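Exercise 7.
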Amino acid sequence: MNKIFAISRNTFLEMIRSKILLSVLLFAIFMILISGLFGSVSIGEPYIVIKSFGYFLISLAGAVTAIISAVSLFQKEIVQKTIYNILSKSVTRRQFIIGKVLGLWLTCISTVFLMLVLLQLALYPIEGALDPLLLQGFLCMSFELLIIVSVTVFFSTMSVTPVLPGLFTLGVYISGKSIFYLRHFIDKEGYSSFAKQIAQVFDIILPDLHVLTPYDRLVYGISMSTAEIITAGIYSLLYASFLVLISSWIFARRDL
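Solution. The predicted structure, written as tokens, is:
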């Protein structure tokens, strides 16, 4: 465990110093400030506009940070051959994968936390109070990011180029967010049974990111129950753990 924590700590510190992370964070800060401007001139409740745009932006920025950071860091370790120094210190490839996933995940959730603090600062002058549901939003985004980081690392273990893992993960992210459309297609009449069977396979394989991020409820002050939060956390942990196991198995057989 000490080796895993050491790898995750070094990964976290390396990503904190990354210009990629800083660029995404600055862009998100700028857009949150813009959302505050839109909210102040919108018709209706301004805090609804700010929250909706803020949740969407922070979730997207977190996903982009996870994908770019995981792909760039994983490929950097291989291209610069620093991975040989790590693996030569009695570190197994499974420990390397787990440490990288944990380090990248901690980096992403730290970035998301900072952006949610900024969102709260933008909301406070309008609402006049702290929004406790932002904490639930943070938990949901943390669950989502754990899956996204695991998916990116999974694809990175199979590819020698940084482009394909990023594109594949982006496709999984968009599909996971739109999984309810796929289920609507499965339930709808008029399509062949073969097409529905294929859709059901994708429904099982793809992560249900939509259920992990109920921002439409949080925006209107509808809290998640404790059971829903625990279920979402267990789901994301099991899904990520399964991907880490497969990634470790693939990476252990990869000729570096």
